[in-house]
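Notebook B, p. 112. Complex prediction, attempt 2.
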Amino acid sequence: MATVDFAIGIGGEAGQGIATPGDILARIFARRGLNLNAYNAYQSLIRGGHTFLTIRASDGPVRNMGDKIAVLIPLNQDTMDRHLRLLTKGACVLFESEKIKPGAAAAGVQICPLPMKQLTAGNKLGGNTVAIAATLQMLGVEFKAMEDSLARIFRRKGDAVIAENVGIAKAGYDYAAANFKPFPFKAPNLGKGNAVLTGNMAIAMGGIAAGVKFYAAYPMSPSTGVLMYMASHARQLGIMVRQVEDEIGVMNMVIGAAHTGCRAMCATSGGGFALMTEAVGMAGMLETPVVCVDVQRAGPATGVPTKTEQGDLWQALGAGQGDYPRIIVAPTDQLDAFKTIPELFNLCDRYQCPGLVLSDLLISEGTASVDPKELNFKPKIDRGEIIFPNGNGDSTNPYGGANDNAYLRYKLTESGISPRAVPGTPGHIHVAASDEHDEDGTLISDEFTNPTKRREMVDKRARKMETVLSHIAPPKLVGPENAAVTLVGWGSTEGVIREAVEKLAAEEGIVANQLAVKWIVPFHADEIMRILSRSKKVIIVENNYSGQFARYLRSETGIAAQGHIRKYDGEPFMPHHIVNAVKEQLAGKSKLSVPHHEIHV
Amino acid sequence: MSIATEIAPAPAPAVLDKDTYKGKIHPDWCPGCGDFSVLSALQAALFELGLKPHQVVVISGIGCSSNLPGFINTYGMHTLHGRALAVGNGVKLANHALKVICTGGDGDGFGIGGNHFTHSMRRNVDLTYIVMDNQIYGLTTGQTSPTSRKGMKTKSTPEGNLENPINPIPQAIVGGASYVARGFSGKQKHLVELLKGAIMHKGFSFVDVFSPCVTYNKDNTYQFFNPRVKILEEQGHDTSDFAKAMEKGYQWGEEIPIGLFWKRTDLPTLEELDPVLAEGGPLAFRELGVSDAQSKALIAELL
């Protein structure tokens, strides 16, 4: 059980330096062994506007940004005006008293003005340091943690800079001790360190663990973090990283590298993925294993580049014309994303097909703490039936393969899987063709067009999918079997739904359970039908307008959910959104709830 | 390789002759199509260079000429319309020991694939791009192409093409290709030499080949080109002279130059520039995963 659970909100204009204090706080909490989740609500601009970072920490599990802010640090008047009204009893607001005026606050909100000019001794960059130090004091964190953090951040700038900043921090820390009421709890030190990472870093690290040797991308929010992580580690890890002219080029280049034998990967967002889809189909046709991550953002078209959505489900399901095997997975959080990528690569290699990952801004740009022991960089590697050049053997004709029919790249097999030789392998010459082809790669789209063979090849590829399901975990019902309502979600909503279920039980006396779906294709339809057929009421929670998952569930199982909770304003669900909607629906007031996002960011 | 699940047989001593490069499928091009000559020239060039078929990958897009990989005995990929170069870049970077040759038509390369053409040139990956340029869309039965001359009547421009054509030679010179040549199907021996030079050139080499479409293009025929083409190699052209190369590239009319316009050897290839390829052999054959020390370092960054 959690003994402490608090969130700090820092807001200001883009360019005011919110990321650094956020990073300092996150690392200090993680180093104490606290769990954390951070979500940055931002806008598509580099300077100005409004940015609001929420960092939530607890000694219990933290699965989302939570419902309320304990400490508000507004760096400008706009942030004060937007967020002060949302603070509740017990919270506090720390601000530069010479610059920002508090408005009306709820009873019991502690107003903590900081005389910045005096505390920073005129250092204009010192304001954030003062506010963080004061916050830490009120949370019962010893000053040493702040000091260590500053020493790390400014280590390249020399001792004088470190000393100056430590002095400023100390002034803020002491001022808070003398003037403000501390929180009734102390942020504990659990004596073990947690790692801190974003979802995009987790995705990149998952690729690295899987053995990716070729990564290509075109920058696109909110997926660019994967490219940046890959690029900054490429040389030390021996990974070829290329920024390509467009997403069409990205996917085709990745296919070229994968066909040649590399584990190859790319990430993009919905618009870029739209450009890639013809080639995704080609990977299906050539039977080339590639992994592509779609970090969803609010669409359609350019949409809202810095806001989250689960709006690309049907795009992924419909990517590429025609029928072809592919695997689609929606990881549930940052750590899950890390673990899913190697698992997906193994499946793609084994089944020689493309694998699509549906992440979203919430996971990819969200920050989480993980136990470093969970970051296994040596996962099981299964490359499937692949043939590399080798110095041993007794081929009669190294230049054969196609001409002497010694090798059939697309051999009709019972499993549908045909051993895959990479270019450069003696005796296995063949053509891999985007046009329909025969077992040996000969096109059957022109003079050799043959309905029987066409059908055989479609069947062969389709056959591969028959056994994939047995390699992926079925979704599990979490919570009591005999619940009043089952909340179904997919991908990134797992954490917030879990918390809503807990809150429903603890605060509302409503017994709910949860079914979180991660693997989209293939789909554990039978198991899901078995679980949901026992549910008293099924409500689907998803971050889109039309209920994309609800429609998919219906198409695959025939199950039509009784209720829907949807959000498509660009912001993620907060637990109370789901709690209130469930109450409303159980009371029979609505079958479709669209929670209002109270925070204007 | 330790990660291989099946061990491929090694090459037994085998004889390379001209027929080694023949594919098992006879081309289905129209009789008289210029592409036959390009195919033969490519096969001859590979033979004369002694390149082993399993160490060559021929990658095409879509169109009549893009069926070529099926007709030649090397590794082949028949990819999407316009994407041969993008795929080819990936293949070469994944295994830089392979010889990579991309082929296609003018619509494939300069129309739908124009962006990859532009960026492959500046990227300077060591591969060869052969465009069978017939100034028409043949496989879709005769529509205008990016190289169709202004005024040309096609099925999609029945009153005459209103748009200006691309001139791929100056475009390639300016775009950063380090070997820029033009051949003609009617001059096969000359074409063989151009292709040999292109294949052995280190860096992005481009050979635009006039390859007449005898079915749908009544303007740019053998009869049109034969009297006009003038071989640069017979005219003492200096392939290191940028201004001259551009001037020759723009020449059109009664005399149309063919041959090597522009060549530079001072540009390192992308493979040479990227330290990731400096040692360890082709990426495709390297051990997967990271060392314990590397994984420790990656985790340490997060603490």
